[in-house]
Specification:
5 helices; elongated; Signal recognition particle alu RNA binding heterodimer, srp9/1
């Protein structure tokens, strides 16, 4: 068997309308909404987060219906990362504030720039931009695999921006 990617994660939400509104503010678009075939008391909405990256929101048909609160533990989801461009990250505080969304200050970790925020259901989201924008046509997975090799050769603990830059340069030179 060969995997070709993640189809989409599905999140159970308290309010489909509030959740759709929140993700639209982040730039998502609704692909479709329909009754949930497995649970006639709920509806589902598939949203696009860019290209073939989607998220399924599943929530009660009746907005007054109470859903049990989630708890962390084995098998639970810790967070979802959403890739954004370096250009967006440069303006993230302004863009999020204008959309009425509160997030953390930007955190830099190696080759990544991060902002944490929560959706209306308490799902932790992580907006991620690389410190160097990956070139079009070169997958992030390919870049990271090569950057990890450079990290290992250097005896470093973490993948840093220099490893990513070197990986990109090598991949571009051999493509």
């Amino acid at each position: 068997m060969e995997l070709s990617g993640i189809g989409y994660p599905a999140i159970i939400v308290k309010s489909v309308d509030e959740s759709v509104d929140f993700y639209r503010k982040l730039g998502a678009t609704v692909l479709y909404g329909e009754p949930n075939r497995d649970d006639h008391e709920s509806v589902q909405v598939l949203i696009s987060l860019g290209e073939d990256n989607c998220l399924m929101l599943i929530g009660p048909r009746d907005p007054g219906f109470k859903i049990a609160e989630a708890s962390l533990g084995t098998g639970s989801m810790q967070y979802i990362t959403l890739n954004v461009t370096t250009q967006f990250m440069d303006q993230a505080f302004f863009e999020l504030s204008n959309a009425g969304i509160q997030g953390s200050e930007e955190i830099r970790r190696g080759y990544e720039r991060l902002i944490f925020l929560e959706d209306p259901n308490g799902v932790l989201l992580l907006l991620v931009a690389w410190t160097v924008e990956p070139p079009a046509g070169i997958s992030r997975a390919r870049i990271l695999a090569r950057a990890a090799q450079f990290r290992d050769e250097a005896g470093a603990v973490f993948i840093e921006e220099a490893h990513v830059r070197r990986a990109i340069a090598e991949i571009e030179a051999t493509s």
